[in-house]
Amino acid sequence: MNKIFVDGKIFEKTNFLNEQLLTVDYEACIFRNCIFSGSVISKSNFTDCKFENCDLSNVKLDGAAIRNVEFNGCKLLGIHFEKCNPILFSAHFQKCNLNFSSFSKLKLRKLKFNDTSLQEVDFVEADLTEAIFDNCDLSRALFESTLLEKTDFRTAYNYSIDPEANRIKKAKFSKEGLVGLLDKYDIEIE
User: Fold this and answer.
1) The sheet that has 10-12: what strands, in order across it?
2) What confidence tens digit (pLDDT) does each residue in 65-111 have?
3) Whether pLDDT at 1 is above 70
């Protein structure tokens, strides 16, 4: 199958619902108010692209490349980012809903999450060195054997991280957030 190249195109209110967008290279494209829910975009490449107010819930990304991609105001429920091409994976999430998604075993150094809901997200064995969770809800997010060195959790909330099961050297927490590091001890803090 021949690859299709799309460069610098703006897609507005386009419905890709349940479509198969296989082996397409998107470079410097902008997707505004588009619906991708349930689509298959496996083996496609997204480089320097922006997604604004899009619904990408349950998108299949097997082998897709995400490189320097911005997601702003997007709904990304149940996405298995760990199935993406891990080489040069780079994204920024602003005001997004990533609940029930998975980043398991991905290298996510310096990844930024701003004002984003990350409830029940799987970060097991991920490398989140120097990542930033700015004003993010991490309710029931999974951190196990996760590399969290120099990760910034100062304004994140509702997280539960076991310091004995993760590497947290020089990670940043607020005083109020320390409770999330002591959950497993079932103690009362006043």
Assistant:
1) 10-12, 30-32, 50-52, 69-72, 91-94, 112-114, 132-134
2) 999 999 999 999 999 999 999 998 999 999 999 999 999 999 999 99
3) no
**58 residue type, one letter:** N
Judge: domain 102-190, CATH 2.160.20.80.
Answer: yes
Strand order in the sheet with 65-67: 4-7, 24-27, 45-47, 65-67
Tens of pLDDT, residues 113-135: 999 999 999 999 999 999 999 99
Contact 27, 49 (CB under 8 A): yes
pTM, rounded to two decimals: 0.91
Can you name the residues that pair with 47 across neighbouring β-strands? 27, 67
According to the model, what pLDDT value does residue 187 have? 66
Work out whether strand 4-7 and strand 30-32 pair parallel, antiparallel, or are unpaired. unpaired
Query: Would strands 10-12 and 30-32 be described as parallel, antiparallel, or unpaired?
Result: parallel
Q: H/E/C letters for each residue in 121-185?
A: CECCCCECCCCEEECCECCCCECCCCECCCCECCCCECCCCCCCCCECCCCECCCHHHHHHHHHH
User: Nearest-CA neighbor of 135 among 116, 120, 122, 108?
Assistant: 116
Decide if 126 contacts 147 (C-beta within 8 A). yes
